[in-house]
UniProtKB/TrEMBL annotation:
Coiled coil: none annotated. GO terms for molecular function: NADH dehydrogenase activity. It comes from Marinactinospora thermotolerans DSM 45154. Keywords: FAD, Flavoprotein, NAD, Oxidoreductase. Pfam families: Pyr_redox_2. Belongs to the NADH dehydrogenase family. Residues 5-329 form the FAD/NAD(P)-binding domain. It comes from the Bacteria. This is NADH dehydrogenase. InterPro entries: FAD/NAD-bd_sf, FAD/NAD-binding_dom, NDH-2. Transmembrane segments: none annotated.
């Protein structure tokens, strides 16, 4: 008899943990494991702000799946649809070809995307910090603004390039603002005349920063940011963005060429595309992580509406955090095995262990197990936790080495050249098409003269 095929979509916190456990617990000849994934690494997202600031190299938080998964067959691409009737996933390979992957059990864990709103100019001018390309882009962009400001004698342009806005007062926005502000401080050693011009703004429509940290730690984080010169405004959002300014909902206008958008996440569109029931875009599952009425499909993590049994509130859902996704990954494996064996499934129950927020430099705030900690002890706990949670030895070694290099030798503030440019041909990266022939040069110089 053919082995049952278990197909997992997504290799993030939930997917990787599920697969590693299934590889350990399911004998080789008992089931086939297939992973559909656009990347051959698991991204340790909580350290993305440190890649954006250049404290960590991108490789150090991209944990190789080839190292961690021994017998899972990988389909390099993205799932773009699911036919639940024929039990088939439609996937688009990274080559662009479409492929069809039948399943006996399906585990949907594609995570979330940056949540956007219908704000004029947001899509065109905002930039997120949700993947490696965006983190590396942000660093290059911020450093490019400083270089261009330093090279300009136009006070208006200098103000626009030296004003940075981060939208979103959750941990992503707070850590991104804190780490990039520190990058600017380092860069100012090279551009001392910009020191007075640089301004960082962090805004959120909510009345507090990181409400999940509790009032006093949220305030502590805000005070630390303000001491470092970050202007924090609460109860405010963006009304409109253009290339060189952002208008806020309180009608302030910031001359600004950097809008970093970290105002929440929305579940992967794949969940709506399944045609199964969703709750605000998240796939509806029971506390056992199985889809009601389609028990061969299980889901978890940021893209599933997993009931939070640790809370008394009716309808409470687990928040979209790595902490939950990792643990749900383990239960996904156990419940897939139970369902293949015809055994009852277990329910997910986990009490939040708290939050750790690295504010860069020597600052951090943490609430492990309900205890409030700030400063160096919080930084120590935060970094120790990341080293423990990173799923591979080489990843841990790279991260620890990067931290040590920074502490001993300081940081680098050079751009890597990954500005937002599409690479469509072999010659694009070298920009061989940017040079002007003689006629074009003359024409442009004439035009410029005419404009003066
Ligand atoms: C900057 C930042 C900081 C964070 N800090 C913290 C923190 O301090 N603490 C904390 O608990 N949480 C933190 N989080 C949240 C945490 O990273 C997420 O909650 C967690 O990654 C969710 O796990 P997941 O497995 O559901 O999804 P993910 O880890 O996002 O994994 C989903 C995977 O699915 C893949 N995928 C997407 N679409 C498809 C598709 N169509 N087909 C196949 N594969 C697909 C993706 O490439 C990805 O590999 C942070 C997030 C960010 C962005």
């Amino acid at each position: 008899m053919a082995r049952p095929r278990i197909v997992v979509v997504g290799a993030g916190f939930a997917g990787l943990n599920a697969l590693r456990r299934m590889e350990r617990r399911i004998p080789k000849d008992a089931a086939e494991l297939v992973l559909i994934t656009p990347n051959d690494y698991m991204l340790y997202q909580p350290l993305l702000p440190q890649v954006a600031s250049g404290l960590l190299t991108p490789q150090s938080i991209a944990v190789s799946l080839h190292r961690l998964l021994r017998r899972t067959k990988m389909v390099p691409g993205a799932a773009i649809g699911v036919d639940t009737k024929s039990r088939t996933v439609v996937a688009r390979k990274i080559s662009g070809e479409t492929t069809y992957v039948p399943y006996d059990r399906l585990v949907l864990v594609p995570g979330s995307n940056t949540r956007v709103f219908d704000i004029p100019g947001l899509i065109q001018h905002g930039r997120g910090n949700k993947n490696l390309a965006e983190a590396v882009y942000l660093r290059d962009h911020v450093l490019a603004q400083l270089e261009l400001a330093n090279a300009s004698d136009d006070p208006q342009e200098r103000e626009e390039r030296c004003t940075f806005l981060v939208v979103g007062g959750g941990y992503t926005g707070v850590e991104t603002a804190a780490s990039l502000e520190l990058l600017c401080e380092e860069a100012c050693k090279r551009y001392p005349r910009l020191r007075e011009s640089i301004s960082w703004h962090l805004i959120d429509i909510a009345p507090r920063l990181m409400p999940e940290l509790g009032e006093s730690l949220g305030d502590a984080a805000m005070n630390l940011l303000r001491q470092r010169g970050v202007q924090v405004s609460l109860g405010v959002s963006v009304k409109e963005a253009t290339e060189d300014k952002v208008t806020l909902t309180d009608d302030r206008v910031l001359p600004c060429r950097t809008l970093i958008w970290t105002a929440g996440t929305s579940p992967s569109p794949l969940m709506e595309a399944t045609g199964l029931a969703t709750n605000k875009g998240k796939l509806v599952v029971g506390a056992d992580l199985a889809v009601p009425g389609s028990p061969e499909i299980l889901a978890a993590g940021d893209s599933a509406a997993v009931p939070d049994l640790s809370k008394d509130e009716e309808g409470a859902l687990c928040p979209p955090t790595a902490q939950h996704a990792m643990r749900q990954g383990h239960l996904l494996a156990d419940n897939v095995i139970a369902s293949l064996l015809g055994q009852p499934l277990q329910e997910y129950r986990h009490k939040d262990l708290g939050l750790l927020v690295d504010l860069s430099g020597r600052d951090a705030v943490a609430r492990p197990l309900g205890k409030e900690i700030t400063g160096l002890p919080a930084l120590g706990i935060t970094r120790a936790y990341h080293l423990y949670a990173l799923p591979s030895g080489p990843g841990r070694a790279r991260v620890a080495t990067n931290w040590a290099i920074r502490a001993l030798l300081g940081g680098e503030v050079s751009r890597l050249g990954f500005l937002n440019r599409k690479i469509d041909t072999l010659v694009d990266p070298e920009e061989t098409s940017q040079y002007l022939d003689q006629d074009q040069v003359r024409q442009q110089v004439e035009m410029a003269r005419g404009a003066v």
